[in-house]
Write a structure and sequence with these properties.
single chain; about 220 residues; 2 domains; five-stranded antiparallel sheet; 5 helices; binds zinc ion
Length: about 220
């Protein structure tokens, strides 16, 4: 085989495109010709470097794609987390603003007892501009014997506007010792008939018998 033909065949040989017969002849030639041997070796190395480069490029591309993907994932995660945190803050905020109420401190409440004919009205007002009071009434023997005073932040709800001027509880007396009950019956008052007004740290007890005459403010 002639050197030029050998060199022409080398690229095909390295790609395994040459026939068995040709390979045989080329290997024969290489045994005798150091120059062609070196040439093949050089081509082989070039090819190896080229392939390595391609491989590296591919890897770079893949790495780049991975980076982009993980960046996107991080972005989505950040957005989702931010939305979640905002949502939680809004929930907690609106709970404390609109739903949360607490038993009022006695010092924050202005209590007024008013009498109009036979109707005694107990009114409770907060001393703070940004709050309002709600009363929870518990009845026993058909009259309110316990009042729990709750305080709430002032908001724009209907309750807030309704109770802005205070919350009231009324008692109707027939005379100073007789209470007209919710069910229409009459009750002769004894010393046992007491209204409990519950505040945060204290419970005020007012005998119903005293209520009729206690039309003073405190
Ligand atoms: Zn040769």
């Amino acid at each position: 085989m002639d050197h030029d033909v050998f060199k022409d065949l080398v690229p095909s040989y390295l790609e395994n495109l040459t026939s068995k017969e040709t390979n045989k002849q080329m290997e024969e030639h290489m045994k005798q010709c150091a120059d062609c041997r070196e040439y093949l070796k050089g081509m082989q190395e070039d090819l190896l470097i080229e392939r390595n480069d391609e491989h590296r490029k591919e890897k770079k591309n893949i790495d780049y794609l991975k980076k982009v993907r993980s960046k996107n994932r991080k972005k989505i995660f950040t957005v989702v987390m931010s939305l979640l945190i905002i949502f939680i803050i809004i929930c907690i905020g609106s709970y404390f603003l609109f739903a949360h109420m607490w038993i009022a401190d006695e010092n924050d409440v202005r209590t007024t007892i008013q009498r109009q004919d036979n109707i005694i009205t107990l009114s409770f007002q907060t001393k703070h501009d940004n709050r309002y009071l709600l009363t929870m009434e518990n009845s026993e023997n058909s009259y309110t014997n316990e009042i729990i005073i709750y305080e709430k932040w002032n908001d724009f709800s209907e309750a807030a506007s309704l109770f802005k001027d205070g919350s009231e509880v009324t008692y109707t007396f027939l005379d100073k010792n007789t209470l007209l009950l919710n069910n229409g019956e009459q009750r002769k008052l004894t010393d046992e008939d007491v209204v409990h007004i519950r505040y945060k740290d204290n419970t005020e007890k007012i005998p119903l018998k005293d209520l009729y005459n206690a039309t003073n403010n405190n």
